[in-house]
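Checked the freezer inventory, then went back to the computational side. Two predictions to log before the end of the day. The first one is the construct we discussed on Monday; recording sequence and tokens without edits.
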Amino acid sequence: MTASVIALRGEAAEVVLSEAQAVRSMVQDESRRARLADLIAAAQAGEVSADDADALTELLELGLQTGRIRALYGPAGEQAALRLFRKLPQGVELANSAREVSQALASLTGRPLEKLEIQATAPGTYLVSISVDGRDLTLRLDRQGARLASVGI
């Protein structure tokens, strides 16, 4: 398997195949139906190429965010979908951004907390402001993940 191909096996393959077929049956837009048909073929073949990764990402995001995958396939199906999502470019990017934020927060460990504030800036978008021992960090939390918005010393 190359970096541009992701193997689909076991429960993950079953979830992807079932979800892609279900969503395709509801979609009217022909270009989206064609993308889903390609994804169905890839799932049946047992591997997803980079060309199908966007469609797979959209499918998994929708099913995971709405709770549909857990409701239909149970916790094991949800975990299989999450493991697969983490292998996709957007899943890797989200994990990397979370790791970077965690590293920045680790620098505050053991220092006295002066201020912690959460601000809703838009639907699904939040800023978390943290002041610790003269250091100020602002984190942005949204669909793209967790990112450092600003650092002040």
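The second is the one RB wanted added to the comparison set:
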Amino acid sequence: MDNDVESARHSLVHLLRSGHTPAEAAVELGYCLSWAYKWRGRFDEAGWDGLKSQSRVPRHQPSHTSEKTKRKVLETRAELEEEAKKPNALSYVGAGAIRGRMLERCLKTIPSISTIEKVLREAGVTKPRRTQTQTIAYPRIQIECPHQLTQMDNVPHYLSGGTLVNCFNAIDVVSRYPGGEQYERKSTNEVLDFCLKTFQSIGISEYTQMDNESSFNGGRTHPYVIGRVPRLMLLVNTELIYSPFYHPESNAFVERFHQDYSQNVWEKVQMQNLPHVQKTSTRFFGRYRLSRHHSELNGQSPASLHFASPPRFLPTDFVLPNPLPITEGKIHFMRAVSKDQTIPVFNVNWSAGVAQPGQGVWATLFITLRGARLCIYDQAPDVSPRQCFANHPFPLSEPVLPLSERFQKPATRWLQHLFNRAAKHSTLSSRLFG
């Protein structure tokens, strides 16, 4: 097609040279008059080369990435890859880490995450992301701010001699601020110690999520048992969420952090003993908290985002009660409805009402001073309206204690103060609660 077009332009020049006017030549070749004038002018300017078709790409491309920027992206990537080989360095080489390093150096031109990813793809240094399929859609809380949800989990590792080390990790879902502890054992005592240290380092989130291991929930034998870990969560006023069974995707943020922790700590150094693990882990957590490799944080470090608003920390003088009481509050469960239309909660199979087999549901155990009830819903608590599939009384073998004032959130304290005033003044009480 281009050859035919250029041949017509050559014919135009020959006709003009033989004495034809531009109008006559245009008619003979089947083109308009402006076409004849255009290509006559091109020939006058550049000769026969002026008749060649030119690129239609705009000369000025605002979104075009300069060769200098591409080179700087690839140089930074190579630099991070070299650093990642060192035992005490972080192993992040993706677009977020590259942009974070460029921000640290205050470069004149800082490309976006998408631009860096495009440069890496064009250079052939990226790996395709694996897609995950999810068969059951579980209701979930929509988290938008730091201190709303902390996910906790345990990942086992082995020393060179075969000794097991239980590595507990926690991470704030929004700020990506992590914490972790390492133990020889994985009993409830270690879980409680890990929770306390997490509440003192990361803070007490509105929700805390973990899986269904026996050390997390009080065992899998006796029915209706509220173990020590959920009791601790109730005591400090964080709403515990138990993930679905056999569904690590629901705990995806801490699962992904396990990979980072393993890659940066266990795959780089041959661990000798538990103190060696703890020392190396502490260094990793410190670097990770200050790193700006997270593309989702837009150049911020986990620490800067996490502490932009103050967390609610566990008091340093806190002493764990023994025994731990049951305190008023809520415990949540993400569950799949079984074929017999039941869900398991604290070693009891509860009817899910009209929920369908295979459906993901959200169950909440409401614990009040008057007793407890288990309610099963189609949606998480932050969705309105939502359908209640079933409502069951939950037997308790001991009295419920009110939430301590030291663990009440600021808004909760204000409401409690208002309620106390209302109780003293019957007129105000009738107006507010009548």
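For RB: The chain has four domains: 2-51, 68-123, 139-403, 410-434. DSSP finds 14 helices and 13 strands in the chain. Let me know if you want it refolded.
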